[in-house]
Amino acid sequence: MNGEAPPRPLDYLTAQGTHALEVLPLTWGVLIISLLVTAIISVLVVSGILLRRVPSGGPIPPVARTGSGMRWIYIGVGLSTIVLFGTAVWTMRVLAAVISPPAEPAFTVTVDGRQWWWRIRYHETRDTPEFITANEIRIPVGVPVRIRLTSTDVIHSFWVPALSGKTDLIPGRINETWIEATAPGVYRGQCMEYCGWQHARMGFVVVAMEGAAFDAWRASQVLPASEPQNAAIAEGKRIVMTHCCACHTIRGTEAGGSAGPDLTHVASRLTIAAGTFVTDRTTLEYWIRHPQRAKPGNRMVDPDLDLEATRLPAAYILKLR
Amino acid sequence: MGNPTDDPWWFSTTDHKKIGIRYLYTAFAFLLLGGIEALILRVQLAQPNARLLSPEAYNQLFTMHGISMIFLYAQPILSGFSNYLWPLLLGSRDMAFPRLNALSYWVFLAAGLFIYSSFLVGAAPNDGWFNYVPYANREYNPGPNIDFLALGMILLGISTTVGGINFVVTTFKMRAPGMSINRMPILIWGTLTASVANIFVIPVVSLAFFLLWLDRQFGTDFFRVEAGGQPLLWQHLFWIFGHPWVYAIILPAMGMVSDALPVLCRRPLVGYTFVALATVATMAIGFGVWTHHMFVTGLPGISLSFFSGASIVIAIPSAVSVFAWIATIWTGRPVLNTAFLFFASFIVLFVIGGVSGFMTASVPVDWQLHDTYFVVAHIHYVLIGINVFPVIGAFYHWLPKMSGRLMSETLGLWNFWLMFIGMNLAFLPMHLTGLWGMPRRVYTYGESFGWNTLNMITTIGAFVFAAGVLVFLVNVFLTLRSGRRAGANPWAAGSLEWATTSPPPPYNFAVIPTVRSRYPLWEHQLRDTPHRSEPYRGLELAKGHEALKSSTLDAEPQAILPMPHASLDPVLLTLGLAVLFVALLVHGWWVALGSGLFILGVVIHWIWPRAEFGSREPPEEEAAHG
Amino acid sequence: MAEQASPGGLHPLPVGNISPHSMGLLGFWGLVATEAALFGALLFAYFYSAFGAGRAWPPEGLPTLALSGPNTAILAASSITLWLGERAMKRRGSRRGLALGTAASLALGILFLAIQIKEWADKGYGIDDHAYAAHFYTITGFHVAHVVFGLILLAAMLIWTLRNYFSKARHEPVVMVSLYWHFVDVVWLFVFASLYLSPYLLR
After folding, report:
1. Distance (Å) from the C-alpha of residue B288 to the closest C-alpha of chain C?
2. What chain B residue is nearest to A42 in terms of C-alpha separation?
3. What is the CATH number of the domain that holds C179?
């Protein structure tokens, strides 16, 4: 897409979204309070020991009730209570500010968690029919988007730290959150509830685009898959139809499976295998040949193809833009 | 009646000191196992994209690491100290129910072995220590992994519950005359509070695991969405138990510090009443904060606000304890031995674990922190900082009482500094790993997330910490073999356990002491009460194994209780339970039925009224016996 | 007070588990507390699922009170007979009264059990059919298990009574077993109200 990858894609001490920006001062606030409290207590403990300790090797002194010491508790607990109460009030204010989006969301996207990828459904809007994609959510900059969250198998959690905090995807329930990007860019997302073998590699990306570019993208996503332009690609398509159609959908072809991600425009996505690899020829061929080596335990079977034999289907898939 | 040490078999003892020491050995063994698992995990995580462990191996190891530390080490080790120390602190001959005490230990051992035996078939639990459904259900986890955990946890629950009942009754009925409720050591308050909580929350988690087992084995639909089940029900049941449990595994440890730190500061604890009340208040509020583990499950805003508020408020009683300890140092004359270093550093670690918990209590912040390594860092500051550090300090403080020998201070310094530096090297940077977004429970991570250096530092820290534990083990071994003799009261301490010999005789005290203040052995130095406790004069109760029952609040003597001594019932009952649970695991229904009947038989034998305990009329021919 | 508690025991202290100094009874109170929490958790789970399911609860329609209503009365009666028996021992040291009361409670408890099994057999669904069935059979199953254990305790108590173990002064096991049996009965009232009555109110 554009620019260099950030040094820490999941860092949440910075933010690029309205939701996350609203929370960020509170995060820094409680972090700084915590660091100060730790520093003060450490100084009190260490200086108390240094000032009051019995010289080493000396005899154990007799016990004595020197001062009640109760002032320590009154002052310490009093100050702590004021800080805690202030934080509670601040927390409630931030909570009220982010619990619902600042404006009516432009549209709704349903994210359905699967072991170990994300099925993404853009709901129908006034001018676009609904369509399905996977592992990548594109949004226009500067408008809130409603995210509906559910799961088909186990519990997952939806998290794009730069844009907003996390919300779980729970079977049998529909949770809601919202995201809004303040600047164009690619924002990394990650499953955050332990969900089995490939919990580690259940990522996704959110791509925030200027309005016009987003509209063009959305218009292209609604279209069926492109037809092969030459014999080699057509052969690749034939192989894909034999091997992949039971689990994957490619709109406009006979491939209509639903166990795996929709591949209609897979090559237009920035990553494959749920945020695991950048989409290019090498990674795609590796993924087709060795899905169990790349993500042990995932539902895609090792197809027993040599490198030569993966060239053609990979070439076809790379045309699915 | 005979001497209570005359156990016909090693298995039949009901001496609280022997049981306590067995608890300590066993719990520490689980700590070592959990530690080895942690080191393997840390090697895997030291570098990105490592291939030492398969995802499944990693998942089993991280799950067993959590289960070992939280269930098989953290609580049992405190039960060990409490079992050993309680009757000594209270000036009593034994716990209220010596046979239940033995049962509690044996069932704990059986539960630990039961859960660990899953490794033998290569199917250890693999869904983390809080074991969320649906991933724990049969569809996604068809092996026996979760069954080992579900049944093992129910078994462990039996141990914890009978132990809890025993502690509660002991507190209220077995105190030496004059030890009114405001003179009890803080360890008693800590374990009492934890035990009361356990009595009420252990059944909740046992039930959750039982329902899960039914879902897995009999196709019931408690947690299955398709047939009206509720996955979130699991989380509620688990955390209604889970959060009080967290306090149950730190309050007794905090109690040990509140008792031992003043000894080493040469003054009474500052703010005794406040600290005791804070202990109880922590648990009372602790019952109302369980959903702060569920802030990201889509709860309505109003309940988020309530539980967030409660989770912030719970810091106040903790602040009371922290400032009481600091005041005790500032107004005392600290003697810098190894135990003191562990207790003093614990205050700082406690605060770090506390403030990171305070951060997660703030809901919007928790939406970011939740399930990142920040929470992993938090839980380790809580469990290592507030449990392991006080426990190691307590060994330096009380092992001389248990063994009659002093631990080496030279090795102790090495022990302390390796553990303290290792701990902070491993877990302080881990907060940053979390703030930079690393998810917990991942078997590996890509190299482009910025976590590589931090993870390497954490792994190095983990090994430094492990070296510290190793030095501790060497120190204990050398102490038991050839440590210097300790004498009755090596620290010139003020509470009753130091009034008897080291190690104490089987009957603890030659006479039942009488107590007039919180520090019976310090009265002549403190001179703040005209009364004097009588540690060495009092009721002899020399007729075999007898104990004194006293009143609940003021500890006035009420009755003399003949105590059961050696009994095979506890170990037989445990055997029956172990066979029953193995049979349930492998679907041996007839064996299960048989062992159930055997258990019933042992129970009836156990509660059969006996003249020697005075629970029935003496048989006719002995009626003359006084 | 202080003199009274002084060491050496100016006043001779009673020896043994005589009322009100029985430790076993305190242990049984602990057992009752933890069991009450268990049933509390069972009913919490039941209502959590009920509110989650909304109108479709119970899926098989409202539960019939034809058997469960009279059965509740039977169990309540068993508590009364036991209380009468216990009172006979406490007031008059009457072994006969206690044995009669215990035997009556035992019989009523067995009757309750038989009717409960009939109630299960009449249900048109199995434990694995849906979430409601799972809760229904598990809660009633837990209760039945407690009734069975209670009946075994009552049987043991009957034997102890007949063997002349108890007197007006020494009968702590009677107090313990009664406590447990009353607990089992009181718990049933909560179970009955939750499983059988609440669906009528929450409709």
Report:
1. 15
2. B348
3. 1.20.120.80
